[in-house]
Amino acid sequence: MRSKTISRLLEVKLVSDKRRFYLLSLTWGLLMNLAGGIAAAAMLLTGHKMHRFGPCFYFEHGKDWGGMDWGMFIVVCKGADQRLLSHELGHAMQNCRFGPFMPLLVGLPSSLRYHFRKLQKKVTGKEPKPPYDSIWFEAQATQLGQEYLKLNGQ
Questions:
Q1: Cβ(102)–Cβ(32) below 8 Å
Q2: Residue 66 and residue 53: Cα distance in Å, rounded?
Q3: Does some domain include residue 6?
């Protein structure tokens, strides 16, 4: 019973309507978007070009490191593929659901896990196990991003 309640609380549905996405992002999800707005301003001031991916805005910086999401603002490595961008878009959808709890539920655990796995790979020379999407918040972000692409014919 308790497990079902927790699962329901952590469930995220795709926000396919852009107006609803922006409304949720700029109200319930405002905390992450404020941080993202600051990051976006810094990226613009340092000469980075802003791009669009779905309802999100993204910047490319550095090489071969992945991506980072702050609400509707995303920073990814140069040459990021559609898979990475859609995964980060999935995190933006999570922000619409988790709002002020996003940093504690997803942001910090995701960042710590990413850096631990990077260190693990550096030490062992092998890709860490289990797979990246084996934890619920990463799998959910990937699924939401794929749903968005499928819905929009991309």
A1: yes
A2: 16
A3: no
- Our CA angle for 79, 17, 55, nearest 5°, is 25
For the chain, how many structural domains are there in total?
1
Q: Is residue 23 part of a domain?
A: yes
Domain extent for 86:
14-151
From 39-43, 75-79, 146-150, the region with the lowest mean pLDDT = 146-150
Cβ-contact 102, 30 below 8 angstroms: no
Q: What is the pTM of this model?
A: 0.89
With contact defined as beta carbons under 8 Å apart, do 70 and 39 qualify? yes
Q: What is the mean pLDDT of residues 84-95?
A: 96
How do residues 30-70 score in pLDDT, each as one tens digit?
A: 999 999 999 999 999 999 999 999 999 999 999 988 899 99
- What is the distance in angstroms between the CA of the first residue and the CA of the last residue of the chain? 38
Q: Cite the DSSP H helix spans in the chain.
A: 2-9, 18-25, 30-45, 82-98, 102, 108-124, 136-151
In this structure, what token pair is assigned to residue 31?
């905390």
